[in-house]
Amino acid sequence: MKQEATTIENRRRIYDYVRNNPGTHLRKLSRDLGIDLGALRHNLDHLERMGVLVSRREQNLRTYFSTEMGSEEKRVCSLLQQKRFRDLILAIVLRPGSNHGELADSLDLRPSTLSKYLAVLEDRGVVRHEREGRERHFFVTDEERIMRLLLTYERSFWDAFVDNVLEIYFQ
Prior knowledge:
Layout: H1 2-20, E1 24-25, H2 26-33, H3 37-50, E2 53-58, E3 61-66, H4 71-80, H5 83-94, E4 98-99, H6 100-107, H7 111-123, E5 127-132, E6 135-140, H8 143-152, H9 160-169
Antiparallel strand pairs: 1-3, 2-3, 4-6, 5-6
């Protein structure tokens, strides 16, 4: 009976965590909740079968969401949970129209690495570019949605950069 109570409590903790941190992945869940991977997988599978959580495979990560969340929000939240993507999106929000070199300098990223991140963001429709001669200038496609998601799930990011951008944006 004690095992069952522990399982139910873990499922509650997992569900609450995923609901407040949409787009989180397995290892982060395990680390933050202190639940070993085997037990975590078992409980996540059960929560998915019950229809309260859903997972998505993205590149090499499986990310988790509550079923209440819309598909557009899922697509963006999983990127916002990853620091490099989040920093890049926020850099573009702060300086719309930045070119590749400006973004690489401001984020201290190698140009080839930045190109890979930008390709993912453009492929998912989060960022778009406009050409001016040989240069591409980058813009966030739905800035208002991004900022709303950042504000809604701000606590899940624990990031001073997010706090600063939100403060600037909503002044």
